[in-house]
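The records we work with from here on pair a chain with its fold. Taken together, the C-alpha cells spell out the fold as the letters spell out the chain. To see the layout at work, look at the sequence and C-alpha cells printed below.
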Amino acid sequence: MKVTWIYTGSDGRSHLAGLDIPMHAVPIGTASDAIPGGRVLFRASPEGINDFHVAPMRQFVVHLTGVTEVECGDGSKAHFTAGDILLADDTTGEGHVTRGIGGPRSSMQIGVPADFDVARWKV
C-alpha cells in the first residue's frame, strides 16, 4: 500500500518520500502487519493556507474529502485527495505548508509511536 512520507532531513527541512507498506494474503484480500497506533482524531479544515508548521505528533493522515497541497521547505509539493495517506513525521525543523484547494477538506489522523521504524518501507 502506497503512503507519502513527510520527514525532517538532516538539513532541518521537510522532505517527501514514498513508502510502500508490505501486504500479505489473508482470507479475504490482503493486509499489512498491525501497526501500533495511538489517538485518533477527525479534522475538518477550511480552504486556505496554514503557513510553515511541524506535525503536532507523528501520525498517519488519511484524507477523506477535499484537496490538500503540502509544500516542503525543499520546494517539493504533493496533492492529496480522498483515500490518500500521508505519514506526517516532520515534528521538528522548519516544517511544511498545507493548502486547502477549492474548498474545505477533512481527514482522519492516527498517532504512531515515535520509535516505530518506517525506513524499511522506503521506496
Q: What stands out?
A: The radius of gyration is 14 Å. Residues 8 and 14 are 4 Å apart (CA to CA). The domain at 2-21+36-116 is CATH 2.60.120.10 (Jelly Rolls). The mean pLDDT is 93.
